[in-house]
Amino acid sequence: MHKKTLKLSLLFIFVSMLTACASICMRSVPECRAMPFYDLSPKDIVLRAAFYTSYTTSSDERKNNIAVAAKSLDNAFIDVNGEFSFNQTVGERTEKRGYKPAKIISGGKFVTGIGGGVCQVSTTLYNAALLAGLNITEFHPHSLAVSYVAPSFDAMVNSGSADLRFINNTKNPIIIKTHADASTIKIEIYGEPMKEKYVRQSVIKGEIPSTEKEIIPDALGEYPDLYEGESKVLKYGKNGIISTGILIKQINGKPVSTSVIRCDRYNPTKTIIIEGTAKRDAAPPDDKEITDTIT
Questions:
Q1: For 161, phi and psi rounded to 5 degrees?
Q2: How far apart are CA 142 and CA 211, in angstroms?
Q3: How far is residue 211's CA from residue 201's CA, in Å, rounded to a whole number?
Q4: Residues 189-203: pLDDT tens digits?
Q5: What residues does 191 pair with on adjacent strands?
Q6: What are phi and psi of 10, to 5 degrees?
Q7: E-assigned strand segments in 107-211
């Protein structure tokens, strides 16, 4: 991209942020417009970090929830030393606000709940914040490993109990931009230039064998060809994971520090077995030849 075009694009981002920031940064629009980027002009704002995750095979409901949350997050403005809260910025996940039922992790298993998919948005933001060098103050792992990010780099959120928080520890404000389409969410963090670069590393320390089985009778008759006394595996269990997340700081392409930022234990999942309830028809009586004897 041409330098002039890039500067104009960044300026447009800055201006669009100011238009929307009244409710996000809790200031009036005039106050936001008056806030300087301290030692930076808008044209000098750069992309500090970006991260994306995919959800190509997700249900339409889950994709909808990701898009709704991403829209609420777009243009978030965080002042110097300000602490960002995912839950405060995105708000309650309710049907009234456009969220739909989709798969969530609850009680150590996948179930259907309002707002399923929002954790993929918080996870994507968490990784972007790490790469941007921001100070993470609160995160929560899932109880089960997720498929859209490496172990020890997920960030579960729940409107009532679990949040994602981080502090803008740079010398200038930062802006969050989100882009969600039918298969991918990308989150970008803009602010002052960085001398350093951060590299993530997920290390699997061990596995926890999947040994539990859950047998479910076919109470609704969804498997009419599965008779009493018969069973079939609906879903094979997966081993749990013990992992660590490592963040490597580089300057001029050379590592200057390596930090273990977290250690996690993801539970194994059960093997799910469906037990047949269909009844076989009674066998017809054997045909026997009847011989009448006349005496």
A1: -140, -35
A2: 20
A3: 29
A4: 999 999 999 999 999
A5: 46
A6: -65, -35
A7: 109-114, 135-138, 165-167, 174-180, 184-191, 196-208
Nearest to 133 by CA among 159, 169, 165: 169
What are the DSSP calls for 163-178, one per residue? --EEE--SSS-EEEEE
Report d(CA 225, CA 231) in Å as an integer.
10
pTM of the model: 0.81
Bigger pLDDT: 23 vs 110: 110
Kindly list the structural domains of the chain, giving each domain's residue range(s) and its CATH number in brackets, ordered by start. Answer: 3-194 (no CATH), 196-280 (2.20.230)
Q: How confident is the model at residue 228 (pLDDT cuts 50, 70, 90)?
A: confident
Does residue 211 contact residue 267 with C-beta atoms inside 8 Å? no
- Report the distance separating Cα 216 and Cα 275, nearest Å: 6
Nearest CA to 164 out of 186, 142, 191 is that of: 142
Question: Pick from 39, 215, 187, 188: which is nearest to 120 by CA?
Answer: 187
> Using CA atoms, how far apart are residues 22 and 108, in angstroms rounded to an integer?
39
**How many residues comprise the chain?**
295
Q: Tell me how far apart the alpha carbons of residues 44 and 14 are, in angstroms, rounded to a whole number.
A: 11
Question: 260, 244 in Cβ contact below 8 A?
Answer: yes
* Separation of alpha carbons 129 and 191, rounded Å: 12
Is the CB of residue 266 less than 8 Å from the CB of residue 151?
Answer: yes
